């Protein structure tokens, strides 16, 4: 199985090559892989149905407890099956939708990689692996949303989706680390066994909040819902896939997976059911404000995700059963509806439902598929959506906390969703035919096959929901609910949920009837909408850019000495902190100094200080010379004759060079204010003080054995030289010396080149710079 | 001797940093010279300062008699002195060239690359 997923990534990278071989058939060829995985999963059904958990072990980084082990139980089986089946259908569908598109190979690369990331996400047993796949889905979905990269809106939407989901991903990572610490394991299979420990752990609240932020951003829960409708900038097959089976369900999957480990507490129940219910109502309400068919469907996805979160929050066996049914129903009808939306867009050239009408004559089969899927969305019998909605309403009615509020929100969402379903299924196909940018034809069967299959499944499972009983039971086992006694039925008798359904049907149809008028009325809410969470996101982004600009102007101001001062202050701060607080600083040195040594050191210091304060350049050069020769004397006094010779030579050359060149340079000018000089003096004093303290600290510490004993012992026998320093330079460390020669050669070349330029400039009679003859 | 030289090195570093923070480009060159000397001395002194025991092998013997000063830091410093000279001569010529072209010795006036 792991090989199949990793192979999928390999196949994704080969897509351009495959496209050269198979041409327009490539998507169908590539669809074979998810189809094969789906077949393998179906083959595992007897094991899953028996309630067993498959653990496919695969070590990845054993030292860090990171494995590529796959965990297949009812929950991940269901998700994996949805991902592969809908994935295969979407691949076939996109072959038609993007037929002849210049960037089809690129699309195939990204969508296949996305599919495999998603598959890895739902199958991973290890938290780290799950997180890696989680982030991979964020990145690949970014590439998918921004597929039409020439469109600025698509780029913006892609970036928005990426920021929101990856920002949530950061919180999730923190949550996972705390989860692993609290549960003492990185394996989900083990963590779900340790619910008691986790719920009583001191880290429970922070870790739950972090995980919830991750899941809520991914699954577009209020107030992070805004990125999902914007993500409609993606090609329609992507929307069908992202919004039916995958990406947005990742958060839901995670919550369901962690339900046995973290669920059931008051915090869990309150947060999930309230956020879910609020998302539900928000999504449904925002949907009816729009006329773009994809936006309508996207907001209804927000509604569905809210429903799923709410049901997980309620957490009763009834609610969890409703969760599974609703999940399946939504995946089936939403995939179908998005593909229908793509067909409409493809055939009519518009996405605006108010611009379409009477299409049922031209596209009868599309109309039938759309009708079936929309009935399921509306939650009307005899489709699976109805079973899901009845179960949802029943569990809301049985809610323990916040019942009136949740019920109100759920009911609002239900009737508004019904209106959305009516808008999507009735508006384009019925009424008077309208002129559309391109004249509509029936869609090719390859495009229609996918939605037709999904709609048919909705119908079959709706008519005979009993077929799903074992599947629901197996999935419930993965969510950690008692699985016994699950029995789904289309007809529950006359009860309160049915009455609510009828009421919502009436209200929904009314909404549909007066939709145009209602929309005009809702337009007055636009200023309010402009202040929604998306405005907060925009403000955050603008604030970040402004902050970055401010601190760049402050820190990166183009003055090299400010960089230097900043770097040095940071160095002094960090090293100084380590020196005094992380290290017990002791001053344990004995001072044995002869007078002549002290005089030499004094001369050295006097030379350095004089070089800084002299107003005359010649005096400064002389002071530097004094310092250099004092250093040479120090080398003589402390057993380094070679250094002394080199220093003397170099110092002489330096003085000559300075005298030659410096007097063609301007005099010293006083450019800084006294305050600036004081500030620089402080930086300089701090740096110098730190160096002194560091050196004293090194000297008072324990001496490590020298590493040059080998060189001392072998200088004569191996190197045949009596001067050990020389032998090191030309023999033991000869390559260093070679490098040094290169540096000198480069410097010499540079010097020569610059002087030559100078000569040529003079030849072209460039006005000579002001020359100064005296030394001031 | 080491504590005294540590203080001296600290003063050398402080002088170097002060000069490198000046706006005058000539002072920057002086700062460069000071800091390379200070760094050389730091490496040399941190390895331990030994009087009268240069790392030489007496004629006719294969190893020095008794302990000698550590030759490795000396070799490193020797390389560093020579490279510092290379860098310095390059910097000096560069500064002079910049002065010729830009006509300013104030670093704040050298913010434009188009001169």
From TrEMBL, chain A:
Residues 676-758 form the MrpA C-terminal/MbhE domain. Its main location: membrane. Coiled coil: none annotated. Keywords: Antiport, Cell membrane, Ion transport, Membrane, Transmembrane, Transmembrane helix, Transport. GO terms for cellular component: plasma membrane. It is found in: Cell membrane; Membrane. It is a multi-pass membrane protein. GO terms for biological process: monoatomic ion transport. One of its GO terms (molecular function) is antiporter activity. Residues 603-667 form the MrpA C-terminal/MbhD domain. Pfam families: MbhD, MbhE, Proton_antipo_M, Proton_antipo_N. The chain crosses the membrane at residues 6-24, 31-55, 75-95, 107-124, 130-147, 159-181, 201-217, 268-288, 295-314, 320-344, 365-385, 405-426, 446-465, 498-515, 563-581, 593-611, 618-638, 644-666, 678-699, 741-759. Residues 58-107 form the NADH-Ubiquinone oxidoreductase (complex I) chain 5 N-terminal domain. Residues 124-416 form the NADH:quinone oxidoreductase/Mrp antiporter transmembrane domain. PANTHER family: NA(+)/H(+) ANTIPORTER SUBUNIT, NA(+)_H(+) ANTIPORTER SUBUNIT A. This is Multicomponent Na+:H+ antiporter subunit A. The lineage of its organism: Bacteria, Pseudomonadati, Pseudomonadota, Gammaproteobacteria, Oceanospirillales.
TrEMBL record, chain B:
Keywords: Cell membrane, Membrane, Transmembrane, Transmembrane helix. It is a multi-pass membrane protein. It is found in: Cell membrane. PANTHER family: ANTIPORTER SUBUNIT MNHC2-RELATED (PTHR34583:SF2). Its main location: membrane. It holds the Pfam family Oxidored_q2. This is Multicomponent Na+:H+ antiporter subunit C. GO terms for cellular component: plasma membrane. The chain crosses the membrane at residues 6-21, 28-52, 72-95. NCBIfam families: PRK09094.1 (NF006573), PRK12659.1 (NF009302). Belongs to the CPA3 antiporters (TC 2.A.63) subunit C family.
């Amino acid at each position: 199985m792991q090989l199949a997923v990793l192979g999928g990534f390999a196949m994704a990278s080969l897509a351009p090559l495959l496209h050269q071989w198979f041409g327009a058939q490539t998507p169908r060829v590539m669809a074979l892989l998810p189809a094969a995985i789906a077949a393998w999963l179906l083959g595992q059904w007897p094991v899953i149905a028996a309630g067993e958990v498959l653990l496919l072990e695969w070590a990845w980084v054993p030292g860090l407890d990171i494995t590529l082990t796959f965990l297949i139980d009812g929950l991940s089986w269901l998700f994996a099956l949805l991902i592969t089946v809908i994935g295969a259908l979407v691949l076939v569908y996109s072959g038609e939708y993007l037929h002849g598109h210049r960037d089809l190979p690129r699309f195939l690369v990204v969508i296949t990689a996305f599919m495999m990331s998603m598959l890895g996400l739902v199958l991973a047993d290890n938290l780290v692996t799950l997180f890696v796949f989680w982030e991979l889905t964020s990145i690949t979905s970014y590439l998918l949303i921004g597929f039409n990269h020439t469109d600025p809106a698509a780029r913006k939407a892609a970036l928005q989706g990426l920021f929101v989901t990856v920002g949530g991903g950061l919180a999730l990572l923190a949550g996972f680390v705390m989860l692993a610490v609290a549960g003492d394991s990185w394996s989900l299979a083990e963590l779900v066994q340790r619910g008691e420990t986790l719920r009583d752990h001191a880290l429970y609240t922070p870790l739950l909040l972090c995980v919830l932020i991750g899941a809520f951003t991914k699954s577009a829960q209020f107030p992070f819902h805004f990125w999902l409708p914007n993500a409609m900038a993606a090609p329609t097959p992507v929307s069908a896939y992202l919004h039916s089976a995958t990406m947005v369900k990742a958060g839901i999957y995670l919550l369901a997976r962690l339900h046995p480990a973290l669920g059931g507490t008051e915090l869990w129940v309150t947060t999930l059911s309230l956020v879910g219910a609020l998302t539900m109502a928000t999504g449904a309400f925002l949907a009816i404000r729009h006329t773009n068919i994809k936006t309508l469907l996207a907001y209804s996805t927000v509604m569905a995700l809210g429903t799923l979160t709410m049901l997980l929050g309620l957490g009763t066996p009834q609610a969890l059963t409703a969760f599974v049914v609703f999940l399946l129903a939504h995946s089936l009808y939403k995939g179908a509806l998005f593909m229908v939306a793509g067909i409409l867009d493809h055939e009519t050239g518009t996405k605006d439902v108010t611009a379409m009408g009477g299409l049922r004559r031209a596209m009868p089969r599309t109309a039938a598929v759309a009708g079936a899927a929309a009935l399921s969305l509306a939650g009307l019998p005899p489709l699976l959506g109805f079973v899901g909605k009845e179960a949802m309403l029943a569990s809301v009615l049985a809610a323990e906390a916040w019942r009136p509020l949740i019920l109100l929100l759920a009911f609002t969402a239900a009737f508004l969703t019904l209106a959305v379903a009516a808008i999507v299924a009735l508006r384009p196909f019925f009424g008077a035919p309208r002129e559309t940018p391109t004249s509509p034809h029936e869609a090719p069967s390859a495009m229609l096959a996918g939605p037709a299959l999904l709609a048919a499944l909705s119908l079959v499972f709706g008519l005979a929901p009993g077929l799903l009983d074992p599947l629901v039971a197996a999935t419930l086992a993965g969510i950690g609910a008692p699985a016994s006694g699950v029995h789904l039925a289309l007809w529950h008798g006359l009860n309160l949920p049915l009455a609510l359904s009828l009421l919502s049907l009436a209200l929904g149809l009314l909404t549909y009837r007066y939709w145009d008028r209602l929309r005009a009325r809702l337009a007055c809410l636009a200023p309010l909408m402009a202040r929604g969470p998306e405005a907060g996101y925009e403000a955050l982004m603008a604030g970040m850019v402004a902050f970055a600009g401010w601190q760049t102007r402050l820190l990166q101001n183009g003055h090299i000495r400010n960089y230097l001062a900043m770097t040095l202050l940071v160095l002094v701060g960090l090293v100084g902190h380590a020196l005094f607080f992380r290290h017990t600083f002791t001053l344990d040195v004995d001072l044995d100094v002869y007078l002549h040594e002290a005089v030499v050191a004094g001369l050295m210091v006097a030379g350095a200080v004089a070089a800084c304060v002299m107003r005359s350049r010649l005096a400064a050069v002389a002071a530097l010379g004094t310092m250099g020769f004092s250093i040479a004397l120090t080398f003589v006094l402390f057993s380094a004759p070679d250094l002394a010779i080199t220093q003397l030579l170099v110092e002489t050359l330096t003085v000559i060079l300075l005298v030659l060149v410096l007097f063609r340079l301007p005099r010293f000018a006083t450019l800084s204010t006294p305050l600036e000089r004081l500030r620089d003096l402080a930086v300089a004093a701090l740096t110098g003080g730190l160096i002194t303290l560091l050196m004293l600290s090194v000297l008072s510490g324990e001496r490590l054995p020298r590493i040059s004993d080998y060189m001392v012992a072998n200088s004569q026998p191996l190197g045949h030289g009596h001067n050990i320093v020389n032998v090191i330079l030309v023999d033991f460390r000869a390559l260093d010396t070679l490098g040094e020669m290169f540096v000198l050669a480069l410097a010499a070349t540079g010097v020569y080149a610059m002087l030559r330029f100078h000569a040529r400039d003079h030849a072209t009679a460039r006005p000579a710079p002001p020359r100064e003859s005296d030394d001031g | 001797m080491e504590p005294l030289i540590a203080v001296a090195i600290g003063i050398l570093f402080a002088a170097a940093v002060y000069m490198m923070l000046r706006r005058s480009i000539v002072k920057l060159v002086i700062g460069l010279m000071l800091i390379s000397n200070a760094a050389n001395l730091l490496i040399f002194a941190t390895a331990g300062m030994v009087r009268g025991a240069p790392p030489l092998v007496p004629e006719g013997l294969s190893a020095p008699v008794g302990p000698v000063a550590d030759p490795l830091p000396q070799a490193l410093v020797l390389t560093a002195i020579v490279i510092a000279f290379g860098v310095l001569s390059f910097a000096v010529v560069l500064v002079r060239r910049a002065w010729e072209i830009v006509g300013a010795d104030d670093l704040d006036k050298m913010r434009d690359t188009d001169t």
